[in-house]
Amino acid sequence: MVARAPSTSYRAGGASAGPARRTGSQVPRLAVAPPGAAYSEGPDASELCRAYWFELDEWQDRLLDAWLSRDADGRLLVLTAGLACPRQNGKNGAVEALEFYLLVTDPAANILHTAHRVKTCKKVFRRLVKVFTDKRHPEILALVRQIRFTNGEEGIYLWHPDHIGEVEGASIEYSARSRSAARGFEKISHIVYDEAQELTDEQVEALLFTLGASETDRFVLYMGTPPGPNCPGEVFGRTRRRALSDPTPHTAWHEWSVKDLPAPDSTFDDVEDLVYETNPAMGTRLSIEFTREEFANASVEGFARERLGWWAPVEKAAERVFDPGEWEACSTADAPTGAASAFGVKFGASGAEVALCACVMAEVPYVELIECRGTNRGTAWLRDFALANQGVPIAIDGKSGAQALRDRIELDPDFEGELVTPTPADVISASSGMLNSVRERDLSWYGPDDAPEDRLTASVLSVTRRPIGSGGGWGFGGDDPTPAEAAALALWAARPTATDDEEMEVFF
Known about the structure:
It contains 16 helices and 20 strands. The protein is an alpha/beta fold. It folds into three domains: about 80-240, P-loop containing nucleotide triphosphate hydrolases (Rossmann fold), CATH 3.40.50.300; about 270-305, no CATH class; about 325-495, Nucleotidyltransferase, domain 5. The relative contact order is 0.11.
């Protein structure tokens, strides 16, 4: 296929001489759509996109047919839709075609496109800006009332000559999800949750109830990939389960996936057919040759989730240590300006990453993640940091990497500072101390309302209890505990009595 706009990233590979190349399945393994459709505007949306932007693939046309189906009274049948498909297949192409069609044809459409990452929002915003500012199509350009490029407030606002005075005009706004995601969005009719595997209940509840006053059809779309071990996943997973087991009369769900995890000893030849069944863009945007390399460099489980769309079985989630509401209540938009009272350094269990946190003993103790990076390029930066902050205690912990760093710092002839090595009992005390501080609001962290979730928050809200010893003691565990552990160490080391005892080497 050949796109009308060469700049688009959704153009399939062009025709070539020789035998026809094998391509991915255009039909999802799982599909749910409401009955009773009188007609669909999907073909109209596909034609509009083809005329002014790019040509959709068959599977993308199929999605538009479902999403834009209408009943006999002309109302949208689908009010809640879900799309799960492996990465890089072109999910955004179908969604952006939908958004383009709604903006051009419905003067009352007010769309919010929200994603987990700022850069994701910016990418989709820029692609839609290109089509609305293309001088080759003055009839589309003439619809533009305003384009706002302000960072964090990106949006496209239209006016419709035939409806002047009736409605303000269609619009689409883009927002990375944050704790105040609903602020400023009062006239939303359609919500697109991009990167839905990262979506939390708090974020959904902040936005969903803004749809109530809409003057047009309401539509919510969840789009993403199967949640990995470090993704919240609850919202997307729950939406999927409801759509497949007990859908409402207005639910649609489309999923390209495998049902079962391939055997641990599988070869690429064993899964090649599955690759074509689960990736509709295989053979066009995606190459089987590179996919073979992906398989060679990933675990079977990781490949199954990321390239085969496999959903891990739902298991009872381990109890989280911190309550999100209690942690949120400790946030502050005014970080203290005083010097750090202590630092915490924590090496991850594998030694592959290390986190550095600071604690400032202000009116309320304040913790902040300074850095969390891989150790593949060494830890010289931590030695240099210790040399530059010799007046401040530094607690260093971790079975892998901590002692080597400690030796490296202490052997430096210019170092005269204070290093603290916590015992297992100290780690227990640090973990429970941080939990109690959060519960008692005796802790703060930098978190203005308009800031996307940071790495420290993600770590804190994911940690579980990791047993230490046989006496019921515990530290932080889970998929991403390292930043939270570093913060707990910094807080512990900053307490007045934290460094009074003789330092001892720790063995876990």
